[in-house]
Amino acid sequence: MTKSGLAVVAVGGNALIKHKSRQTIQDQYDCAKDTITHIVDMIENGWDVVVTHGNGPQVGFNLRRSELAKTTLHEVPLDYCGANTQGNIGYMLQKALHNEFKRRGINKDAITVVTQTVVDEHDPAFGHPSKPIGSFMGEREAKSRQAKDGWTVVEDAGRGWRRVVPSPRPISIVEAGAIHDLIKAGFTVIGVGGGGIPVIERGDGTLTGIEAVIDKDFGSSLLAKLIGADLFLISTAVEKVALDFNTPEQKWLDQMTVAEAKQYVSEGHFASGSMLPKIQACIQFIENGGKKALITDPEHISDALEGKTGTWIVPSTTVPGI
């Protein structure tokens, strides 16, 4: 088999939940199996792959369980919720990979790495918590948690009150070296779940978990840089990126250079809670020395890698496809 290169494939946490009526563990695993089929196509075509994933909905579920059980059991800190989801989702993806490898007769093993991501304790995000987490509350409960537990709470568009936490940028990944070595040893690795568990590195090198969340696309982009990936691929809900999305002027993009991507960002084409961080993460990867980035949906990964669809982000004008 000809080696195609090393790819980091970032799968959204929402990719495991395609409808509000289908959120059970089995439903999520069924979605994981669908996505993994397309990733194994890549592996069968010679790619070494690290799978990263989001965990927003799953962290929300864990926090809700913790809140409901707080009169009986201790509540679970946010960094431990992140660790829980890395294990749970990692298990889903790892099992799906194992079974698909067996089905195709591929002699390969998958392994999940619980991953810690270092952030700067002086990151401006800590002064401006903005990421909503957990369930909605009434004003009285929100103000009580603010006073008792030091939470930052905000009123959310008339729907109730929610806790918000910082979303700092990742600066290093503790287990990046281990992930690189596992890839070299022939494993398919699942790591940097949810962008990684946010930790702060003290002066003596010790790590301390912190109440924050990391954008999974930025965490995945950083990992791609640290392990020298040839391709950073974001698997999302749309086949291509569009300008003026959901308007009569909508225009699908086959490719954009970093300069063009920055221009589109400055013009406000991408929503902050949706496509914007994906575009910014791709820009970051390429500016840190990466060759190409690709955004598409799972079922079009193979076609996109052949240059038939998807949106490529490249350093300068070139022919799509790898």
Q: What is the SS-derived class? A: alpha/beta
Strand order of the largest sheet: 3-9-2-1-12-16-17-15
Beta-strand share of residues: 15-25%
Quaternary class: single chain
Summarize the biggest pleated sheet: 8 strands, mixed
Q: How much is the average pLDDT?
A: 92
3D shape: globular
Number of strands: 17
Stated plainly, the CATH topology is called Carbamate kinase
Low-confidence stretches: none
Residue share in helices?
Answer: 25-40%
Give, in order, the helices and strands. EHEHHEEEHEEEHEEEHEEEEHHEHE
Question: Considering the protein shown, what is the CATH homologous superfamily?
Answer: Acetylglutamate kinase-like
Alpha carbon gap, first and last residue: 16 Å
**CATH architecture annotation:** 3-Layer(aba) Sandwich
Radius of gyration over C-alpha positions, nearest whole angstrom? 20 Å
Q: Count up the domains.
A: 1
Number of helices: 9
* CATH level 1 name: Alpha Beta
